[in-house]
Write a structure and sequence with these properties.
CATH superfamily of the largest domain: FAD/NAD(P)-binding domain
Strand content: 25-35%
Radius of gyration: 24 Å
CATH topology of the largest domain: FAD/NAD(P)-binding domain
Shape: globular
Structural class: alpha/beta
Distance between the termini: 53 Å
Helix content: 10-25%
Number of strands: 26
Number of helices: 9
Largest sheet: 7 strands, mixed
């Protein structure tokens, strides 16, 4: 029996394994299906990685190599070119490889770090023929950056996810003509910086509230018809345009890779497509943890790393604290634990974590309140970091945190967009206040302060060539401070 098995050797798995090692676990195995570590980072040759974690600008392979080098200084075992076929609830892994054949591994704890996969054409049902020349943006990225193949000369990109935006720039630099980026929503799906650097800087038009209604050509793509869509995302007759092209790239969303999670009986959040996790990133199955894009799709690899470091530390604590001398896993006692569920209110798509465990004995010291927005919260409160996305565009706005309909905390933002993941910190005092009042839910919502409404969509936007960057980045120190936590349920800000 191994202490810890990490499924996936990408940025999440590497950081989780390293964190577990640094927290005292020595028997660690990483299982990776590719022939080398690094995961998706190996094909991301553009810069912009590591600005938050390493405080310098790196390419994807450079970022991965930093963690691989650190891992090489440990005794962590790595199984490459190995596929996990099944994960059971009692943390038994069925694996297969060309080197060792079929094996069954047992672990005291497991960390899920399988990442995500791209949504394909079949999932969106574009009418037309089935010619060659249709790729997901990630597949095109691998062809160009790792295999050395140019996928096309005249390209149309459907969707405005970050990979699609980056490939618009990459293909332009390789001499291809990117005719347009077509997005069905009234707002872009990627980061603002990628809209500016990958489209605006290269004069590539972005058509919002548009979609591809037909693909033409056989056996190769010859062109596409695009059309404007209405508020119900239905094509508007008479708005059709024909674009001659030989390649279509799809950047229409990512899906967390959770087939193994489902087989293990882990509860899946239908909003994220990933496991329901506690604040320590443990799933609904005791001793199985999850981190990175398998939980929810992240914008930045730096955030994946921070989350995975937490998962590795949590798994280490579980192994060290909840195992008997015989090495058999012992379930922790949860009778003195209360669960608080985070609920996404208006304007918010989901929250991660979905559940927070609070020891009931902490309620004795829960008479805390914070009145000064500039006062930093004490470390002893063990604040909980919450990630979420909004479901529409907002101008100057606030993130509200409420108990039983009473707003007890708020976080200011200059703007919010679905393409950019947000985070806030909930103080322990607020969680304990929730318990004191006998409540089991905390609601998180977004309000546009200019209109007082939960949204500020521009449904009629059709084409943009410039984007104004946000003035206060999400996650900045000033934006994450608590404005106030009331000492009473009916308190106001």
């Amino acid at each position: 029996m191994h202490d810890l098995i990490v499924i996936g050797g990408g940025p999440a798995g590497l950081a989780a394994a390293l964190s577990a090692w640094e927290n005292g676990i020595r028997d660690i195995v990483i299982v990776e299906r590719d022939k080398e570590l690094g995961g998706i980072l190996n094909q991301c040759i553009h810069n912009g990685f590591g600005l938050h974690y390493f405080k310098e600008e790196l390419t994807g392979p450079e970022y991965a190599s930093r963690f691989i080098d650190m891992l090489n200084d440990t005794s962590v075992k790595v199984k490459l070119d190995t596929m996990v076929l099944e994960l059971t609830p009692d943390k038994e892994l069925h694996i297969v490889s060309s080197a060792s054949g079929y094996e069954i591994l047992k672990a005291k704890a497991v960390i899920l770090a399988m990442g995500c996969r791209e949504r394909t054409r079949g999932a969106i049902g574009i009418p037309g023929t089935r010619p060659s020349g249709i790729f997901t943006a990630g597949a095109a990225q691998r062809y160009v950056n790792m295999e050395g193949y140019l996928v096309g000369k005249k390209v149309v990109i459907l969707g405005s996810g970050d990979i699609g935006l980056i490939m618009a720039r990459r293909l332009t630099l390789e001499g291809a003509e990117v005719l347009a980026c077509v997005e069905i929503m009234p707002y872009p799906g990627g980061l603002t910086r990628n809209i500016v650097q990958c489209l605006q800087d290269f004069n590539i038009p972005l058509y919002l509230s548009h979609t591809i209604t037909k693909i033409h050509g056989s056996p190769r793509v010859e062109g596409v018809t695009i059309a404007k869509v209405d508020g119900q995302r239905k094509p508007v007759p008479g708005t059709e345009q024909y674009l001659e092209c030989d390649t279509v790239l799809l950047s229409v969303g990512l899906i967390p890779e959770n087939e193994l999670s489902r087989k293990a009986g882990i509860e899946i959040d239908r909003r994220t497509g990933g496991p329901v996790v506690y604040e320590n990133l443990e799933t609904s199955v005791e001793g199985i943890f999850a981190c990175g894009n398998v939980v929810h799709v992240h914008d930045l690899v730096d955030y994946v790393t921070n989350e995975s470091l937490k998962a590795g530390k949590s798994a280490a604590e579980y192994i060290l604290n909840f195992n008997d001398p015989t090495g058999n896993s012992v379930s922790p006692e949860h009778s003195d634990i209360s669960d608080i569920r985070l609920v996404n209110g208006v304007g918010v798509s989901y929250t991660v974590p979905q559940l927070i465990r609070i020891p009931k004995n902490l309620m004795v010291n829960s008479s805390l309140s914070i009145s000064d927005p500039d006062i930093e919260l004490s470390d002893q409160l063990q604040d909980v970091e919450v990630f979420f996305r909004v479901n529409r565009k907002f101008g100057r706005s606030r993130i509200g945190v409420s108990l039983a309909g009473n707003e007890l905390a708020r976080f200011r933002r200059e703007r919010l967009a679905p393409g950019e993941m947000e985070k806030i910190r909930l103080p322990k005092s607020l969680l304990m206040k929730c318990l004191q009042l006998g409540l089991s839910e905390i609601e998180i919502y977004a309000v546009d302060e200019m209109t007082g409404q939960a949204s500020a969509d521009n449904a009629n936007e059709t084409k943009i060539t410039a984007v104004s960057p946000r003035t206060v980045p999400a996650g900045s120190k000033s934006s994450d401070k608590i404005a106030k936590v009331s000492s009473a349920a009916g308190g106001s800000i």
